[in-house]
Every structure is written in C-alpha cells, then in structure tokens.
C-alpha cells in the first residue's frame, strides 16, 4: 500500500513538474522571440511605426468624407510618421486628415498630392519610416 501511494505521488509530481517546465519554456520563448507576423503577406511594420495600427489591412481607396476602419488606419499611420496629431485619429476623413495625406504624398514622389489614399499611398504609408521630427501644425 505504501509503495502504491508513493508511486502515485511520484507520477503526480513528475506531471506537475513537466507542466511547470512547459509553461516556463513557452513564456521564455514568447518573451525572447522577435515580433513575427502570422501572415507572411503582411510584413512587420517598418521601424518607427507602431503596432497600434490594426484597424484595416488592405489598400482600398479612401477619400475625404469617409468614416471607419480604413480612415482610422490611414490616420494612425500618418500619426506614426508625424504628419497628423494623435488626437486627430478619430476615424473621420476630415480637413486635417486631408492636409496630412497631401503633405505625406508631396514628401513621397511619385505620389500625387491629391489627398486620396490610393493603393500606392497605402503602400508608401506601410513601407516608409517616420519622416517628420515633429507633427506639422494644422493650417
């Protein structure tokens, strides 16, 4: 009887130790791993970009007057690049966002500064690093 109980305790101890070791190993691996994208077509954002921009992952044209996730994404990327104030990231493509898009486009030829976030502008927003040291004031 004593032998059976100690065997059970030993097995339970081993299982508990194995679970603890697995938990510690996973925690260490996750903490030390570089940021990786689950989707290889959506690479890790460039340096200076923030992971908080997770509203929209596409390239559909976005224009003045629109609202929603596409606008929030464009605004977030513009704010990361210091073309827009963070307080202006509100999901509404208004005058301040329009000016920010135009200034970004003007700084990134061959983009035309028309204020429309086209697929080419989306690409530039995703792949450029921070451009301005301080945000531009709204005129």
How would you characterize the overall build of this protein?
The chain has 139 residues and is mostly helical. It is 46% helix and 0% strand. The protein contains four helices and no strands. The termini are far apart. Mean pLDDT is 75; it is low at 32-45.
Summarize the structure.
Helices cover about 45% and strands about 0% of the residues. It has 4 helices and no strands.
Which overall shape is indicated by the principal axes computed on the Cα atoms? Answer: elongated
Number of strands: 0
Helix-strand sequence: HHHH
Proportion in helices: 40-55%
Ends distance: 86 Å
Number of helices: 4
Strand content: under 5%
Summarize the helices and strands and which ones pair or pack:
Layout: H1 2-32, H2 69-80, H3 95-106, H4 119-127
Give keywords.
mainly alpha; 139 residues; 46% helix
């Amino acid at each position: 009887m004593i032998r059976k109980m100690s065997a059970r305790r030993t097995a339970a101890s081993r299982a508990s130790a194995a679970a603890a070791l697995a938990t510690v190993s996973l925690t260490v691996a996750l903490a030390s791993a570089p940021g990786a994208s689950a989707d290889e077509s959506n690479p890790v954002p460039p340096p200076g970009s923030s992971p908080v921009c997770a509203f929209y992952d596409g390239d559909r044209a976005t224009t003045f007057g629109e609202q929603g996730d596409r606008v929030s994404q464009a605004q977030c990327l513009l704010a990361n690049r210091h073309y827009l104030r963070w307080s202006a990231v509100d999901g509404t493509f208004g005058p301040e966002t329009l000016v920010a898009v135009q200034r970004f486009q003007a700084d990134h030829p061959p983009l035309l500064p028309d204020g429309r976030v086209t697929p080419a502008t989306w690409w530039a927003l995703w792949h450029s690093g921070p451009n301005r040291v301080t945000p531009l004031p709204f005129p």
